[in-house]
Design brief:
667 residues; Rossmann fold; 4 domains; six-stranded mixed beta sheet; globular
């Protein structure tokens, strides 16, 4: 641990709190203070409820709220800290504060305790370490891989929201880091099923979840991530304990996902004490999440600010504090910055310093290459002897032969897969399409006809239906994420939703509906991209063999079943996801650019009595400020100047307003 670290240790026993501060000395002093744990828990609930109520309000009440929370934080500090501890914290010069507490005290928002005029979480790089009475199986600490493997799960649950954009921006952040070498292999996935998380989570070093949280203080086993088809519960995580190495780092960016009750072993029928407890006891090294409700946009910004610092080699604790500061500076109407909690060592760094990394790749290497080139130049212009001339003739002939051989070999590499393989993947695509269309039609018949205005259309979205190779399942699962990154890089404004098990999702929904369950609709994209992956071995010159991958893609309009396009991509099996994104799927991008024009975003415009121009599509449909719409008979052009959930305000850029009360515009 860094020498610039202060330790606070707190132990609750028999209505007495033993608490003290030290700098990792072998011997240190603690004090005892009589406390009422029930009174303190009531104070904690008041603070969290106060913040939650404020987060649900649209008005800006930041100053009043911070004043109230600081008052509550001071009273909480009075209840927990002795005067000596307060003085030590006030005079401390250390940057890191490690909070070592027992499992009776995890429900307390220590980070919101206010000393003088500052929250502890704003002044220090804070992290929690917990002493628990719960039995954990023997496990090995995860050895971080190079490159780091990161899984980004952004699940909008029932509609498109800020979570998809958050996942895409985090992917972009990791891609920027990879410009000097592959440091992070990030996979972005959305709309998956609970069992898929248990199957895949141990394959990754870092996991980020952006979505909704189900918090249940009465039954902590049921706390968990709300997915498009079920809840990934704390009890699911508890069952993983001891059966494999968990990720080192979890960022759960969902409301109240770090809120917990006491990790009480007396409740025998509970497998866990909530989401954060389940993850930490299962072996996660670091966990970040909010203890209160958060607003989508500020919550996403906090995550982006955090990763922008983390990838530069800044410690995880300082990255959290920097994100707090930046969010407060850029959004003075939101207190979400204060609600994030870090479990684990705050001084740990997941990446090397970015500047050092660049220097290590440039310093020294260029010098060696220059010396090597200089030696080649001197040798090339030395005076040759007769013997060297004869040798040079033989060398020249060999060079020509090897060049011809190389040209022939590399030409053979460009050969496509055999016809029988093409036929196999086409048949698999047919079966996948037939099954999904059949299930889709059954599902739509059960939920009822869509009664929305057919003149309205949202931002084009595509869900991917992956049919991976059974022998290369883990490697194939990154392909939808690679395609998503490719579209983002190409600035192609299309939402890609990954649904590897779409047929399983529909099957379960159909069963629920047949049993009389609620008619809640899944978010259905207009287009589906069926992806069939096949691995094969290609022979070159009857001697050389190369392992290759064939990705067969079929784009379908789910509303009418029409096949819009068919394409394929072939590449060597050893390509990384970053190399795939850079060098492959260019044809898919070009075709989607043309297809996107067939599915514009459209809405109905009406003029209000006050003269404002309002269109009945908004943020939920994908509308953003600055977007341009047109389509009137007189060629008028409009620009979006404000956006709400289901509406947007327009201003006239070109032409004249129609006399009609309502008219249709498209992007």
């Amino acid at each position: 641990m860094s020498a610039d670290t202060l330790y606070m240790e707190a132990l609750f026993e028999n209505d007495s709190l033993k608490i003290g501060l030290h700098k990792n000395e072998s011997v240190w002093t603690y004090e005892e203070k009589q406390v009422s744990i029930n009174h303190i828990e009531n104070q904690c609930v008041q603070i969290i409820d106060m913040i939650n109520r404020a987060q649900r309000q649209a008005s800006c009440i930041q100053n009043d709220l911070i004043h109230q929370v600081k008052n509550e934080g001071r009273m909480l500090g009075d209840a927990l800290f002795t005067p000596t501890v307060k003085t030590q914290l006030n005079e401390a010069s250390e940057k890191n504060l490690v909070l070592r507490i027992d499992d009776h005290l995890v429900q307390i928002p220590w980070e919101l305790i206010c000393i003088r005029d500052h929250f502890l979480c704003y002044r220090f790089n804070m992290g929690r370490e917990v002493k628990t009475r719960q039995t954990t199986s023997h496990r090995h600490e995860r050895q971080l891989q190079s490159p780091r493997r990161m899984w980004i799960i952004s699940d909008p649950y029932d509609q498109l929201s800020q979570t998809i954009e958050e996942g895409q921006k985090i992917c972009n952040c990791m891609d920027l880091l990879n410009k000097k070498g592959i440091i992070v292999d990030a996979v972005h996935q959305s709309q998956i099923m609970p069992h898929e998380i248990n199957e895949r989570i141990r394959n990754f070093d870092m996991v980020h979840f952006a979505g909704h949280m189900n918090y249940n203080s009465d039954n902590p086993d049921e706390c968990g991530w709300q997915l498009s088809d079920g809840i990934y519960q704390a009890s699911d995580i508890s069952r993983l304990d001891g059966s494999g190495t968990m990720p080192a780092f979890i960022f759960s960016n969902a409301c109240q996902s770090a809120r917990t009750t006491s990790w009480d072993t007396k409740i025998a029928h509970h497998l866990s004490s909530g989401l954060v407890g389940a993850f930490m006891i299962a072996g996660v090294k670091h966990y970040i999440g909010p203890i209160c409700e958060i607003v989508d946009s500020p919550g996403s910004k906090f995550a982006i600010y955090f990763y922008e610092s983390l990838v530069q080699g800044i410690s995880i604790g300082e990255s959290v504090r920097i994100a707090r500061t930046r969010l407060l500076e850029n959004n003075s109407c939101d207190i979400g910055w204060a609600t994030y909690i870090l479990y684990g060592n705050p001084s740990f760094c997941y990446f090397e310093k970015k500047q050092k990394f660049i220097q290590n790749n440039t310093a020294g290497i260029g010098k060696q290459e220059t010396l090597s080139i200089n030696r080649d130049i001197r040798a090339r212009w030395s005076t040759p002897s007769d013997k060297s001339i004869r040798i040079n003739k033989v060398t020249l002939i060999l060079i020509i032969l090897f060049s011809l051989f190389g040209l022939y070999y590399y030409a053979s590499l460009e050969q496509g897969p055999p016809k029988e393989i093409i036929a196999t993947v086409e048949k698999r695509a047919d079966l996948k399409q037939e099954r999904n269309e059949k299930l889709f039609n059954q599902y739509m018949a059960l939920v009822g006809k869509d009664l929305s205005d057919p003149r309205i259309s949202s931002k084009l979205s595509i869900f991917t239906v992956l049919d991976p190779s059974k022998t290369h399942l883990i490697n194939d699962q990154v392909i939808p994420s690679v395609i998503q990154k490719k579209l983002i890089t190409a600035n192609l404004d299309i939402n890609i939703l990954e649904r590897e098990s779409f047929d399983h999702v529909l099957t379960e929904k159909i069963q629920i509906l047949k049993q009389g369950g609620p008619k809640t609709k899944l978010f259905m994209s207009r287009l589906a991209l069926i992806i069939v992956v096949h691995h094969y071995q290609q022979r070159h010159l009857l001697v050389f063999r190369q392992n290759k991958v064939l990705v067969f893609m079929r784009l379908i309009d789910m509303h009418n079943g029409n096949i819009l396009d068919v394409m394929d991509e072939t590449y060597p099996e050893n390509l990384t996801s970053t190399e795939l994104c850079r060098t492959r799927f260019n044809g898919l991008v070009e075709r989607l650019k043309k297809i996107k024009k067939l599915y514009p975003m459209c809405g109905i415009v009406r003029q209000t009595l006050s003269g404002k121009i309002v269109m009945n599509i908004g943020e939920e449909h994908g509308v953003t400020i600055g977007q341009i719409f047109s389509g009137t008979p007189n060629g008028s052009v409009f620009k979006v100047i404000s956006v709400q959930s289901n509406a947007c305000g327009l201003t006239l850029l070109q032409g004249e307003l129609l006399q009609s009360d309502t008219f249709r515009l498209c992007e």
